[in-house]
Amino acid sequence: MADLYPVFEVDEEEEFGDEEEILYKKDYKFDYSTGEFVKGSNDVMLCGGADAWIQWCQSVMRIERYQCLAYPDDIGVELEENIGLEDRDEAELLLQTTITDALLEDPEGRTESVSDFVFQWDGDGVYIECTIESTSGIIAVIDSEFNSRREGEIG
Fold first, then answer.
1. How far apart are CA 7 and CA 94, in angstroms?
2. Most exposed: 32, 36, 58, 144, by fewest CB within 10 Å?
């Protein structure tokens, strides 16, 4: 009679490191200089890989924290509050901190570090540039320009 409960050997579990593969999801390509999505022949173009991560970083750097219900509170930067400060050294330190914190909150865990900030002030506006590095070693420079007063605001 056949054994009702057969016995067999199981291979030992393969050990995996703690590192998980970082996936770079695709996203719609956006041109920040025109403020428009990039269109192909019939549709909006997609970007993937490192380009999608860099675009995510550029977007987060431009989002005013707590102003859009579509984003959780840990996404975005306190731009207006900090750009309007009288002391530019204090403003730069706070902007550097809030931008770094926001970029390190990457829900996909792709951002390793943010460094090498450059600030160029022009009246009540500022141009900010920084270097970002991914957990997979990709390095890029991102930038943005901000004004303390919104367009159309009287004053």
1. 64
2. 36
